[in-house]
UniProtKB/TrEMBL annotation:
InterPro entries named in the record: HotDog_dom_sf (IPR029069)
Protein name: Thioesterase family protein
SUPFAM superfamilies: Thioesterase/thiol ester dehydrase-isomerase (SSF54637)
Pfam family, one: 4HBT_2
Length: 143
């Protein structure tokens, strides 16, 4: 594990785009969630949302998504999604993201999940084995 910035690279393709030759609006939250899943995998030995849910019985359903669009996303360059936790609450985690292409900020956002006991869909406090890793990575200055 490292405290360096985590950046997930997404290959935007022709199939992601609309007739205006920019990424469909609905693809942008998809790209963001893909980057957050990659953040989990990078920090928890390859365990993303699927493994958290199935193998660890930890759910993380979203309760809030907020995105600001700054510049169109196109297939011309890789989409570099800088992803980081901005808050770890008792029962939730908020991720921030800044997505850039060729150094240009395309979108930024905030994404909040709550922790649940997956098989009964009941809220729970942040599991200690996750909190121990997440706490030192929280970047409140970028919230």
């Amino acid at each position: 594990m490292t405290t360096d910035n985590f950046v997930h690279e997404i290959n935007v393709t022709w199939g992601d785009c609309d007739p205006a030759q920019i990424a469909y609006t609905a693809r942008l939250p998809y790209f963001a969630l893909d980057a957050i899943n990659a953040w989990w995998e990078a920090h928890f030995d390859g365990d993303g949302w699927f493994q958290l849910q199935i193998d660890r019985n930890i759910g993380t359903p979203f309760v809030n998504l907020s995105m600001d669009f700054r510049s169109p996303v196109t297939p011309r360059h890789k989409l570099m999604c800088e992803t980081y936790p901005t808050r770890l609450g008792n029962k939730s985690i908020t991720f921030g993201m800044k997505a850039r292409q060729n150094g240009v900020l395309c979108f930024e956002g905030s994404f909040t999940c709550v922790f649940t006991i997956a098989d009964v869909f009941k809220s729970q406090s942040a599991p200690e084995e996750l909190a121990r890793v997440i706490k030192p990575l929280v970047r409140a200055d970028l919230a």
